[in-house]
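haha ok so turns out i had the wrong file open the whole time. this is the CORRECT one, sorry everyone. sequence first:
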Amino acid sequence: MTLPAVLIGLDWGTTSFRAYRLGADGCVLDARSAACGILKVPAGDFERVFEAEIGPWLADQPNLPVIAAGMITSRQGWVEVPYCPCPAGSGEIARALRRHVTGAGRVVHFVPGLSIVGADGVPDVIRGEETQIVGEVGAAPGRRLLVLPGTHSKWALAEAGRIVWFATFMTGELFGVLKEHSILGRMIAAEASDGDAFRRGLAYARSSGGGLLKRLFSARTLGLFGELPESAIGSYLSGLLIGSEIVEALACLEQAPREPITVIGGSDLTERYLLAIADAGLPARRAATDAAAHGLFLIARAAGLVS
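then structure:
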């Protein structure tokens, strides 16, 4: 017999859609995913996708509360929700939820992203990652440093269950641009994973004498002089960029991390970050699975949507 759910959570991003039926203790009773991120929804007909993907769940339990996080709450999404300022935890985020009633009479609670103004006076934002962080740290005391790899990697600091700082690094997007639209990309042969080349890129990123702009050209010259085969240049460039990201992220912190750095994600990229952090001599750990689902549950509970 299928256990009754108390909540439906949606993690609806730029390229992907994930839905969770959640039980009274926050456990995932059922999950589904689809390649219908916000950029793939024709004419922005989000309500049609919503009904197609989770309509059967709501048919069984019509009064289930629904909560949604990710780029679905952005300006390009279904309902734009203003950013909630840091510091923020599940309580602050819950108070900033945006209630929306669909044409079919369904009630959806949209989660805001977070904003911060850095020490340099420049604003930064996250949308979707805040829910994963909340799900990972819960209300745990102490200090946690987390990284969420991706097109735009996010580093965040949580204290006593609240996000107090974060920063964005365009590492993944820069890799794609360099690979597809630069002279460096012309040197990259068919995609292959080369651990030695990746670690060489990490080491050069940590070396003294110049920054990333100087070091980037090495992805060409090492190939020209036969020190790297073309099949290894992609891995080297990845190591160089990820290594530079780690150096920059740690430089933003007032003190070096004492606890293991938590990496949130489920892709091969997560493994690269775990390796890169360990290669820098720092402890690292993989986050628990379903961090987004757990975060949606905690925010819903803080909002009184579930008891």
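The radius of gyration is 21 Å.
again sry for the mixup
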